[in-house]
Amino acid sequence: MTEAPVFFPDGITDVPGVRVGHARVAGPRALSGTTVVLAPEGGAVAAVDVRGGGPGTRETDALDPRNVVQRIDAVVLTGGSAYGLEAAAGVMAWLEERHRGVRVGPAPEHVVPVVPAACVFDLGRGGDFTARPDAATGRAAVEAAAAGGDHARVAAGAVGAGTGAVVGGMRGGVGTAGLRLESGITVGALVVVNAVGSAVDPATGVLYGGLFGDDAEGGPARGDAEGGPAGGGWPGRPPREVHEAAVRRLAEARASSVPPPLNTTLAVVATDAVLTRAQAQKLAGTAHDGIARAIRPVHLMNDGDTVFALATGVRDLPAGPGPLALNELLAAGADLVTRAIVRAVLAAPGGRRGPGGDFPSYGELYGPAGGPYSRWSRGG
Asked: Contact at 8 Å (CB) between 116 and 75?
C-alpha cells in the first residue's frame, strides 16, 4: 500500500547543506525503513544524548567530547530494532566511495567514515518479523539524501524510519521543523516518533505538543474551546463526543495488538552555528525537553530515546552575551523537536489494520485525514 507523505514548509533542511533521505523496506508484509541525515562536505561537529533505558545505537561513544572524532558526515535513524543498525554499513560504504570520513592515512581513500545510528522497534508491524532494514536500505536512503539537493523539503509521515512507527497505540512517523533565529542562525529538527508514551491528553484529546508554539506562524493552537482550533491550523480541543469515540476506538485497537517490548523517539537537531563539541552536547541534551513536552511518559526502561546534534559551523554565535549566547539556540532546539513531534502525529496516514496489529491515526480518530494539516501538501 502506497501512503503519500506530507511536506511541511520548513524543516531540518533549512540548515544549509543538511540533506535528508528516506528508504523503505520492500515487501507486502514489510513496515519499516531508514532515514539518513547527511551533513555537508567536510562534515559537522556532532554530539548525542541518550536518555531512554533501552537504546539501540551504533558509534555513539565516538561522539563523546572526550574522544578523538571531531566531525561526522551522516546520522542514521532506522527501524528494525538492533537488526536495522546494519543500515549504517550501507551509508558507511557510500561515504567511503567518496573519500568522506576520518582521515587515517596519506591517500584520499584512507578514510574511516564514522556513522552514528539509532534504531526504533517496529519488528513485525507489517506482519513479517524478518522484514527490516539492511545495508542496501541504508545506501538507498543516503543516495536519496544526496540527490535531494540543498533546502529540499523533507517528506514526513509514514516514511523512512517512521514507516511502521507507533505512538501510544496510534500511528507515529517522521516529522520535521525549522526556524531562523534573530541572530541569523538557522536551527532545524527531525524526529522519528515511535513511543510507548502517548502524544494525546487522555482527558481531552488535545496533542500535548499542541500546547506549545506560535499561532501566528502556524504553530500549535493554544485555544481549548471545544469544536476546533483557536487559530494557526493545528487541532484544538475536539468535541466531547468525538473524543469519547476516539478513546473507545483506541482502546479496542490496543486490545487487539500485541504491545511491543521496545519503543523509541529519535531526533536530530541541526544548526549552521559554530559550536564546540561540548556545546553540541548541551544542545542534544536540552532538545530532550522537546520530547518531554510532546509525549508522556518518556525515557522509560523500554524506550530508547536518543537525540543527536549537528553543527555545520558557518555562523558564529552572537559575541555580546558570552556563554549565554547559546541559550537562544538551546531553547529553539527543544521547541522545534516539540513541533516536529506534533507534525509527525498529524502527518501519519490513515490507520493501518493488519497481521502486525491495529494502529489508528490521529486523523482517523479526531477528524478527516488531511484536515488538520490541509495547508500543507501531501505527495510532494
From this structure: yes
